[in-house]
Amino acid sequence: RQRWRADGRALRKLPVHVGLVVTEEEPSYADMASLVVWCMAVGISYVSVYDHNGIFKRNNSRLMDEILKQQQELLGLDCSKYTVEFANHDKAGQVLNCQSTLKVLSPEDGKADIVKAAQNFCQLVAQQQRTHSDLDVNMLDNLLSSTNGFPDPDLVLKFGPVDSTLGFLPWHIRLTEIISLPSHLNISYEDFFSALHHYAACEQRWGK
């Protein structure tokens, strides 16, 4: 545990929000739980878990049980102090420590959330609570429910052979660094930390 904290402090920059995107057909709850716990251990504040079939979200209690188990085994933390957040605002029991927040997302939280936000804005205009000229980046951000309270991801770790994020938060990853890894199956901490080290060394030029 002390080594993981030291690793996080040793990086030149640490992402605030990491997206863990699985493009493989058979997601592993144990391996995803390991990735979430490692994110917590190095000091990452926000974590999003996503697979394009929505398997993790549909079976979120199974994922949370695995995270809780590994959290206790690897970190020895009292896991009774925090409530995991889901994109649909359901509460799924007491998991995670007070320094990290997790959201489990599915495709409905991507493009469908943008469509819903647009419909809500049009309704506000129809009710004369807003005008069309009020729509800007900040307004749309506020209307999106899937990442309410979450900053945009600094880093996405994409697992699998598909060269796409398959609908993961299309509005929020305009400036996100995306690192591809072959698979999340049997992933090691060394592979995870190597990706963080790669991110820390990247010079983000913001389109310049």
TrEMBL record:
InterPro entries: Nus1/NgBR, UPP_synth-like, UPP_synth-like_sf. Pathway: Lipid metabolism; Protein modification; protein glycosylation. GO terms for molecular function: ditrans,polycis-polyprenyl diphosphate synthase [(2E,6E)-farnesyl diphosphate specific] activity. It is an enzyme of class 2 (transferase). Keywords: Angiogenesis, Developmental protein, Differentiation, Endoplasmic reticulum, Glycoprotein, Lipid metabolism, Magnesium, Membrane, Receptor, Transferase, Transmembrane, Transmembrane helix. One of its GO terms (cellular component) is dehydrodolichyl diphosphate synthase complex. Its EC number is 2.5.1.87. It comes from the Eukaryota. GO terms for biological process: angiogenesis; cell differentiation; lipid metabolic process; regulation of intracellular cholesterol transport. Its cofactor is Mg(2+). Its main location: endoplasmic reticulum. It is found in: Endoplasmic reticulum membrane. Pfam families: Prenyltransf. It catalyses: n isopentenyl diphosphate + (2E,6E)-farnesyl diphosphate = a di-trans,poly-cis-polyprenyl diphosphate + n diphosphate. It is a multi-pass membrane protein. The active dehydrodolichyl diphosphate synthase complex is a heterotetramer composed of a dimer of heterodimer of DHDDS and NUS1. Interacts with NPC2. With DHDDS, forms the dehydrodolichyl diphosphate synthase (DDS) complex, an essential component of the dolichol monophosphate (Dol-P) biosynthetic machinery. Both subunits contribute to enzymatic activity, i.e. condensation of multiple copies of isopentenyl pyrophosphate (IPP) to farnesyl pyrophosphate (FPP) to produce dehydrodolichyl diphosphate (Dedol-PP), a precursor of dolichol phosphate which is utilized as a sugar carrier in protein glycosylation in the endoplasmic reticulum (ER). Synthesizes long-chain polyprenols, mostly of C95 and C100 chain length. Belongs to the UPP synthase family. This is Dehydrodolichyl diphosphate synthase complex subunit NUS1.
